[in-house]
Amino acid sequence: MMDIQRLMIIGGGQMGSGIAQVVAAAGMNVILNDIDPAYSLKGLGTIRNNLIRDVEKKRKSQAEMDAILARISLSSDLEDGRNVDMVIEAIVENMQIKSELFKKLDLICPQHAILASNTSSLAITEIASFTKRPDQVIGMHFMNPVPVMKLIEVIRGLRTSHETYLLVENLAKRMDKVPIEVNDFPGFVSNRILLTMINEAVFCLYEGVAARESIDEVMKLGMNHPMGPLALADFIGLDTCLAIMEVLHEGLGDSKYRPCPLLRKYVAAGWLGKKSGRGFYDYK
Ligand code: CAA
Ligand code: NAD
């Protein structure tokens, strides 16, 4: 089996930076790429802060922290992917933008390289179709916050090879994560269930069933969820939540997946949740 040693993560946002952290912590070299250098720099700052907390809590030594940081380099040039064994894409949840990226990656990356997507909902089979290596394209769906959450949903596209699947399964284990295999359907398993619940919580708010805090407290105290669904939506990003609902609605064709108009309105207003300072709650 190929030994994956050099990776490039594309998208230095909340997911991309978390993925870069766990890859580097597992001993591999990683390039963190973003079209906007300010984002990858911010991502590196988040990684550093997470590691400082690990050192303070004696989960890592200072030397381990320094070694992890030394394995991460920043980039805003896709050509930096010409020597990598694998790419994990974590850019905006939009098929058009991802398709353009995968076409470029297919030209730049070495023939043996695996191209993985961290998409929350989009079809891996379709993403793979924009490349000449559909057998080496796979979904590697990390959960937020990446350094904490154990699950990686591994999604096989129709043409993903078994070898590619095994490489990714092995990589997930090297990162101390638990890979779970699912097939290529809109939203996979995780977001078909989670986002339908979140969207229903937004409908509860929209229809005046209860106040936002009450909706969240019901789910926290009544169902033992660590966060209420509205706070979790803010944490994920309301733009990402809306994009996922659109994929579920269009892909599964059932009106039960229609995005709540209130979710649309918030996204249109630029209220994207925690990352923009305002969503269902105010973070300023
Ligand atoms: N990055 C790194 N570490 C973090 C973190 C972050 N953003 N947030 C919290 N942590 C760590 C903290 O360091 C803390 O550990 P220590 O105290 O030992 O240092 C630990 O997690 C617990 O954090 P807190 O005590 O601050 O808070 P908490 O107990 O409420 O836990 C939480 C925070 C882990 C985020 C928890 O609230 C939780 O599990 N929430 C639900 C998360 C969830 O559902 N994620 C899935 C989202 S959906 C998705 O990812 C898929 C998609 O496609 C949309
Ligand atoms: P984010 O908005 O925090 O970050 C996205 C980053 O991608 C930004 O820094 C942006 O500058 C960069 N970017 C956009 N287009 C680019 C391009 N063409 N090339 C390079 N960089 C580009 O988003 P996020 O929450 O990190 O989500 C990223 C992906 O991960 C999405 O596909 C999302 O569905 C998925 N995902 C999100 C979560 C979550 O909870 N937020 C969980 C799992 C998966």
Automatic annotation (TrEMBL):
UniProtKB keywords: Oxidoreductase
GO molecular function annotation: 3-hydroxybutyryl-CoA dehydrogenase activity
Source organism, top-level taxon: Bacteria
Keyword Oxidoreductase found: yes
This protein's name: 3-hydroxybutyryl-CoA dehydrogenase
Enzyme Commission designation: 1.1.1.157
UniProt enzyme class: oxidoreductase
Residue ranges of domain 3-hydroxyacyl-CoA dehydrogenase NAD binding in the record: 8-184
Pfam family, one: 3HCDH
Family note: Belongs to the 3-hydroxyacyl-CoA dehydrogenase family.
InterPro entries assigned to the protein according to its UniProt record, in alphabetical order: 3-OHacyl-CoA_DH, 3-OHacyl-CoA_DH_NAD-bd, 3HC_DH_C, 6-PGluconate_DH-like_C_sf, 6PGD_dom2, NAD(P)-bd_dom_sf
Ranges where the 3-hydroxyacyl-CoA dehydrogenase C-terminal domain occurs: 187-283
